[in-house]
Write a structure and sequence with these properties.
Layout (H helix, E strand, L loop, with lengths): L2 H13 L2 H39 L3 E6 L3 E2 L2 E2 L10 H10 L3 E16 L2 E10 L3 H4 L4 E4 L4 H5 L4 E4 L1 H7 L10 E4 L2 E9 L15 E4 H9 L6 E6 L5 H15 L10 E5 H44 L1 H9 L4 H38 L7 H27 L3 H6 L2
Parallel strand pairs: 5-10, 7-9
Antiparallel strand pairs: 1-11, 1-12, 2-3, 4-5, 4-8, 4-11, 6-9, 7-10, 8-9
Length: 406
Amino acid sequence: MNGTNLFKIALRALANNKLRAFLTMLGIIIGVASVITMLAIGQGSKRSIQAQISEMGSNIIMIHPGGDMRGGVRQDPSAMQTLKLTDYETLCDETNFLAAISPQVSSSGQLIAGNNNYPSSVSGVGTEYLEIRQLTVESGSMFTENDIRTSAKVCVIGTTIRDNLFPDGEDPTGRIIRVNQVPLRVVGVLKSKGYNSMGMDQDDVVLVPYSTVMKRLLAQTYLESIFASALSEDMTDNATEEIGEILRRNHKLKATDDDDFTIRSQQELSSMLNSTTDLMTTLLGCVAGISLVVGGIGIMNIMYVSVTERTREIGLRMSVGARGIDILSQFLIEAVLISITGGVIGILLGCGAGWMVKNVVHWPIFIQPWSVILSFAVCTFTGVFFGWYPAKKAACLDPIEAIRYE
């Protein structure tokens, strides 16, 4: 019996039991659609996080004071004063792998402009901070190195600050805002960046020369942190190692001493978040994949029922010359047809569900071609795997006993 006839017989058998065949497919349909949708949500989240990190600067390096033991008590790193302006100046002069570097100090308080006020923080930074954090001045200009040398009372503000302190839509450039009784003249407004992946408003920012914050607002001589960016993402590790060597030498640390500073890169954060999202994607895929297994068990169950119902038919076919391989192929084709048809419908349903999630719920979605191919391959394998045993049972029936079966 040739393959065409076997295919026609399998189609006729499924057509005679349309509802049962559809209900059997349903497990495969739900499984494939679930796998595609879950993987699309996981991959979409991963790409969204990567885009946010790239927007903040994937080659950023952050240097903070390290915790220290004082009298047997571990100190809070934020209270340490191990980073000095000399560290920043030495790094500026000696590093070979940094594209930009800026000190950072901050002060919080109530910002006041006329009759409007808004609680926020003020960041004292250098002129290269914009390059490091990939910020752009939309109107006005950035303060200059001369402003830093003279501790000028100037600032650059984000759009959130502008909208709250100057709600009438007026240009804030040249206007005065007060921070803890210190007047600052607005020289520029930053282009809006919106919220990042962690829900932080990137436009709620006031940038001031670091010397101004240190002398006029905080009256301190140490830095809270130093921000830098490597020449490229590939050079981040080299830059981190070089910074560590320079700071250890500056702080006169012995080989046995622990670092009194910590260096973190955006690359570490990216790797951590990527591993987390990969784990969640795998978990979601495995949970959805259980539906495929359940669907496969449904195929096996219905094929057993089909073999039992058609025992006399099998006996008659064998008695007129059908071989065991023909009977096995016939039932195996039925199982594969059920799984493949269910897989195709599931792929369409999964892509449609992904589109709905993206446009209705507004979650980031990315359907990778390999997830569609994998789902289709798995459902085909499921049909063969779970259809084989019932088909083998049908092929091994004794023709005489099969004809006598009631």
